[in-house]
Amino acid sequence: MNGPCVGGGVELAMACDIRVCDESAFFEIPATKLGVLYRPDGLDLLASRLPHQTVARLFHVNDRIPAADAVAAGLVAAVTPRGASVAAALSFVDHQQDLRADVVASTKARLREIEARSVDVEGWHEERARFMERLTE
Question: Which of 32, 90, 131, 133 lies at a C-alpha separation of 20 to 30 Å from 43?
């Protein structure tokens, strides 16, 4: 992200697994300032992905969170110099080349279960056993 990430743009960004912004970015959701009740699905997504204090800053006081505070606020994984965020994001993708896609996908699914507070522990053990069997083949 470069420059403003406002309103639904913050929600869209939070739908991504790894987020990078450059130093020109800021994050703001002006719904309460505008007198608009934010949609429940969007609030749920933001509350599940961000620390409570960050959601409170965005909604209760309509705070504009600058890039300098974005990592600590849980909004992004990294802040780059102006214009370097795309290259940084692509480097995250490059690091995935050496990972097993099936294990990454399974881990991502388990993380979503944890966020939804509906962890299938038995299913996790079964899947882990299948992955371990493949390692010994």
Answer: 90
Band (97; pLDDT cuts 50, 70, 90) = confident
Token output for 101: 């896609």
Q: In angstroms, what CA-CA distances link 43 with 8, 13, 98, 122?
A: 11, 13, 35, 30
Tell me, yes or no, whether 8 and 57 share the same domain.
yes
85 plus 20 within the same structural domain: yes
With a cut of 70, say whether residue 137 has pLDDT above it: no
Residue-range definition of the domain harbouring residue 16: 4-95
**Mean pLDDT for the chain?**
86
The total number of structural domains that make up the chain: 2
